[in-house]
Write a structure and sequence with these properties.
The protein is α/β, with parallel strands linked by helices. It has eight helices and eleven strands.
């Protein structure tokens, strides 16, 4: 560990203001000691536009590192020391499966607006954007679900069904107006068995 600490210290001295190390506040003290900016993953990604360093080292989950790279300025490089750092929720809705589900739902003639929790991959966020949807946080889920409900016939909320249901309840959406989709690796299993006419699909 002393060798790593010495190497990081030397690199920071060499690069100076060309380097910014960002770290999630759950990092160990050994990592946090080198961080120029700390916070939760979303806060770190949001702060990237205000960083002028050429190299940004993002010590956090990979899907927020992706968002950080998306928000970086031209010429900036975002480095992920641990690209395998993830969480189960971020992997619950693969982008390819979401696309197949949205294709099948759209084929019914309904306007289905996808709304994704921010703890998802950049690939999934891109699919959501293609279908006119948006990304929400737990703090603004109520506002974003209200917005999405006003955009079409129904909302596909993913991947967190609990956040979706709790938020729908706050908006006064009855349980019978919510539906948990049954999926396989090929998409919807129950689309042909019952009309999916509920405003909130989970």
């Amino acid at each position: 560990m002393n060798e790593i600490t010495a190497a990081v210290t030397a690199l920071k001295t060499q690069l100076g203001e060309r380097l910014c190390i960002m770290g999630h506040h759950y990092q160990s003290d050994a990592v946090a000691a080198h961080c120029d900016i700390t916070g939760d993953s979303l806060e770190l990604a949001r702060r990237v536009p205000g960083v002028n360093a050429e190299h940004i080292v993002f010590c956090g989950v990979f899907f927020m590192g992706e968002s950080a790279a998306l928000l970086a300025k031209p010429g900036q490089a975002v480095h992920l020391p641990a690209p395998d750092a993830d969480c189960m929720m971020s992997l619950m809705t693969p982008a390819g499966l979401a696309r197949r589900v949205l294709e099948q739902l759209s084929a019914t003639g309904r306007r289905v607006v996808p709304l994704a929790y921010v703890n998802t991959t950049l690939a999934l966020k891109a699919v959501v954007g293609e279908y006119g949807g948006a990304v929400c946080t737990s703090a603004n889920a109520e506002t974003m679900l209200r917005w999405a409900l006003n955009q079409g016939d129904s909302v596909l909320f993913l991947p967190d069904k609990h956040l979706g249901r709790n938020t729908a309840g706050k908006l006064g959406l009855a349980p019978e107006d919510q539906h948990i989709l049954r999926l396989s690796g090929h998409g919807l299993m129950d689309a042909g068995r019952q009309p999916l006419n509920r405003p909130l699909l989970l």
